[in-house]
Amino acid sequence: MRGTKELLAACAIDRTIPGAGHPGCFTRVLVETLARANGRQFTVAQLHGAMTRAFYENELTTTPVHVELSAEMVTKGSIVLAPLRNGSTTVAPPQKATGPFGAPKSNPKVLISVHLSDVQSPPSAQQWIQWLASHMPSGVEEMQIELVGFYHASSSVLLVTMPVEVWTVLRGDPAYVFIAIVNSANMIPGSTGFFGGVRGPAVRNPR
Fold it and tell me: What pTM, to 2 d.p., does this model score?
C-alpha cells in the first residue's frame, strides 16, 4: 500500500499498560482527547503530541509511541484526521488554527542535540532555525523551536527544544539526536536557558 503510513501505539514494546477501567487506560484517554477536538481536524502527529502531554499531566501511565512507517511523512506531512461531512469521502488540508485539542495544562518539549558543520556562531544558528521552520511539512503549524545551548566540537553542537509534533518529522535524520522530553526551562541559577528561536505558526516557503 502506497502513501503515508503511521503508527500510534499505547507504549513501547518493553512496557505494559493497564486494561480497560483503569484511570490511566490508553483507550479512555484517547477517546477523551478525540472528543476535545470537537469536530476540528488534526494530524496524527498532533494527536501524539496531545497524548504525550496527557502522560505529563498524569493521565497516562506510559508515554505513547508514534512511528512513521513510510518516508512520505517527511515531505507530505502527517496524516490528517477529520469527520466526514455531507457524504464527502475527501478531507481538506489542515486548517491554520492551532491547538485542535484546546489549551494544554502542560507544555513538555523534546530536547535534542544537533550537529552542524556549517554553523559557526549563534547568529548563524538562528538562521538555521529559521530555515528549519520554513521547511516543515503541512500539518506542523505551531512553531516553538528554541536554541538553548551552543558549543564547538568537531562540528558545531546545538541544544534545541521543540514541540513533540516537530520532533516527529525530524527524528529520521542522524544529525538530530534525542536527549529527553523536558517540562521546564534551564534550571541552572542565573541562566535564562534561551538564546533565541522561532515562535508562532510555521513560515512556509512559497511554492
Answer: 0.66
